[in-house]
TrEMBL record:
Gene3D superfamilies per record: Homocysteine-binding-like domain (3.20.20.330)
Binding site for Zn(2+): C211, C293, C294
PANTHER family (UniProt xref): BETAINE--HOMOCYSTEINE S-METHYLTRANSFERASE 1 (PTHR46120), HCY-BINDING DOMAIN-CONTAINING PROTEIN (PTHR46120:SF1)
Keyword field contains Transferase: yes
Ranges annotated as spanning the membrane: none
Protein name as it appears in the record: Betaine--homocysteine S-methyltransferase 1-like
Pathway recorded for this protein: Amino-acid biosynthesis; L-methionine biosynthesis via de novo pathway; L-methionine from L-homocysteine (BhmT route): step 1/1
Subunit note: Homotetramer.
Record InterPro entries: BHMT, BHMT-like, HCY_dom, HCY_dom_sf
């Protein structure tokens, strides 16, 4: 089914279209040298707009129907948190992000989404009024730039996500809400089904999960959300934007508890063929907004678009340089590589890591702390020597008891 031009996100989803999201800008731009790991803030929209613009274009070419403005963690409390000395405001970041997303979206059949995410203020137990004020400040920019729809994404606690949805809903624009949770639910143990019901009641028309877990785990969590919403007699559309990393060993906090996070995750990356399986499973589950988060590169999104090409009625421009199921290998000079130009070869492949002493699984460093715990109180000052000594002691204690 080809996309319908000027239709908005809800019209597309209501018509049964598959809307393909983009990938993980924070991780992709960190690897390219434009984002600092730790803060994970998106000032590159101001300092290096050409890098952000190019990544948008690559996702568009790969088949993305949504250019999500690079506004992740672009609230002033995050930009000023823990030793940051940026002289760039949240408003500047958000405005530049919207302009870049709109510029590239106009080059194809894509919508622009403005997003808000969890805040240091919530973790520090600031009031509902204070946290909502942060979202309202971001929303003002999104309204000024007239984005097509809004996303509340990457929330570990459904309560904060509800507050975000309530603020975004005042815009009159479509609102999607995406939690970074797995089948175990949010950080206070609220089930995916209940989370989804609360988000729909708060005003979200699209609900789902993003980040923290691998594709199949995220699809499972969204299935649980769908069951909860339907059981409550409510209606919603569903979205999923998972990691591009295998995470079978993760606990409820997801990949940030893995010892490999964030600089040693490459051995866990899903292949393009894994993404075909993910896209099909998401589609079978009734999810129609299908994209990616951390670790997703354009070729991963292209695989999603190719897997669902018959349903969508289109092949992305990026497929011009990619034979379906490796068919381009028929042109290879080596006969044993030409023999791999077939679907069954790649579907049955069990990739090796090439690391003789590499374990198949890790032990997550789950400290069991969340909102309300003293260790999560945020501040503007840089991490002190005393604080670092404390976290190292905690880490040693956790590893000893594991």
């Amino acid at each position: 089914m080809a996309s319908s031009g000027q239709w908005g996100i809800l019209e597309r989803l209501s018509a049964g279209e598959v809307v393909i999201g983009d990938g993980g800008f924070v991780f992709a731009l960190e690897k390219r040298g434009y984002v600092k790991a730790g803060p994970w803030t998106p000032e590159a929209t101001v300092t290096h707009p050409e890098a952000v613009r190019q990544l948008h274009r690559e996702f568009l070419r790969a088949g993305s129907n949504v250019m999500q403005a690079f506004t992740f963690y672009a609230s002033d409390d995050k930009l000023e948190n823990r030793g940051q000395t940026l002289r760039i405001t949240g408003a500047q970041v958000n405005e530049a992000a919207c302009d870049l997303a709109r510029e590239v979206a106009s080059e194809g059949d894509a919508l622009v989404a403005g997003g808000v995410s969890q805040t240091p203020s919530y973790l520090s137990c600031k009031s509902e009024t204070e946290v909502k004020a942060i979202f309202k400040k971001q929303l003002e920019v999104f309204m000024k730039k007239n984005v097509d729809f809004l996303i509340a994404e990457y929330f570990e606690h459904v309560e904060e996500a509800e507050w975000a949805v309530q603020v975004l809903k005042t815009s009159g624009k479509p609102v999607a809400a995406s939690l970074c949770i797995g089948p175990e639910g949010d950080m206070h143990g609220i089930s995916p089904g209940e989370c989804a019901v609360r988000l729909v009641k708060a005003g979200a028309q699209i609900v789902g999960v993003n980040c923290h877990f691998d594709p199949m785990t995220c699809v499972k969590a969204v299935k649980m959300m769908k069951e909860g919403v339907e059981k409550a007699g409510l209606k919603a559309h569903y979205m999923v934007q998972p990691l591009a990393y295998h995470t079978p060993d993760c606990n409820c906090q997801g990949f940030i508890d893995l010892p490999e996070f964030p600089f040693g995750l490459e051995p866990r990356i899903l292949t393009r063929w894994d993404m075909h399986k993910y896209a099909r499973e998401a589609y079978k589950a009734g999810i129609r907004f299908i994209g990616g988060c951390c670790g997703f590169e354009p070729y991963h999104i292209r695989a999603v678009a190719e897997e669902l090409a018959s349903e969508r009625g289109i092949i992305p421009p990026g497929s011009e340089k990619h034979g379906m199921w490796g068919s381009g290998l028929e042109m290879h000079t080596k006969p044993w590589v030409r023999a791999r130009a077939r679907r069954d070869y790649w579907e049955q492949l069990m990739p090796a890591s090439g690391r003789p002493k590499c374990p198949s699984l890790s032990t997550p460093e789950g400290w069991g702390v969340t909102k309300g715990h003293a260790d999560l109180l945020q501040h503007k000052e840089a991490t002190s020597t005393q604080e670092m000594k404390h976290v190292l002691e905690m880490q040693k204690k956790v590893k000893t008891s594991a």
